[in-house]
Amino acid sequence: MASTDKTAVPLSSPKSEATPPSAVAAAAKSPFKYSFVDVVLRVLLFAATLTSVVVMATSKETELVPLIRIPRQAKFNHSPALVYFIAALSVTGFYSIITTLASLSIVLNPTYSKTFLLFFAFFDVVFVGIVASATGAAGAVGYIGLKGNTHVGWTKICNVYDKFCRYTAGSLALSLFAAILLVLLSMISTFTLYKKIRD
Questions:
Q1: Segment (H or E) for 73
Q2: Alpha helix stretches (DSSP H) within 58-161
Q3: Which of 77, 92, 115, 182 has its CA 20 to 30 A from that of 134?
Q4: Any keyword Membrane (predicted)?
């Protein structure tokens, strides 16, 4: 009589769905990549604001005024708008130093990265407004110096104070570059914070 015993077949346990190593590596690299870009942009922000302040502060020029032939000096502290410009860019440069160090700490120790990113996302927007307003105020003064305003009797001065106007224009270009950097930094901080909260 044939044996009816059946060999017991062990049930295979379901395979655990492990995360692919490539996905883990990509997730680990992503925060570092954004942090590295953030550090580079903040260093550029410091360089732009510092150079802008130095150029504006050294823009003074003494020339003989036409008709009366008296030497007169043109310098940034003769205009409240340019004084505000110097102050705003100086504070922004100091802010860039602090946030560069904070961004480096995120790269080295990401424990408090969400707190720092929230700080960046808020204050980067604040400083975009500060730098943009300072650039606009100084740009208005520079435009009047370049073109004058015949309606109120303000004559142009850039035909006399050539160096002062060139330095002011260069400083304004650097401050505009700083404002663009701050916009990019704000976008990066917000996007990185969103990614961390979502994950």
A1: strand 71-74
A2: 80-108, 113-147
A3: 115
A4: yes
How many degrees, rounded to 5, is the angle at CA 168 between CA 125 and CA 154?
Answer: 110
76-119 pLDDT tens trace: 888 899 999 999 999 999 999 999 998 888 878 776 677 888 88
| Cα-based distances in Å from 6 to 12, 104, 118 | 18, 66, 65
Residue 97 lies in a domain: yes
Question: Is there a domain that residue 4 lies in?
Answer: no
Written as six digits, the tokens of 49 are 């604001």
User: Cα(128)–Cα(188) distance, rounded to whole angstroms?
Assistant: 14
- Total domains in the chain come to 1
113 near 154, Cβ under 8 Å? Answer: no
pLDDT at 28 over 70: no
* Structural domain includes residue 6: no
- pLDDT at residue number 59: 87
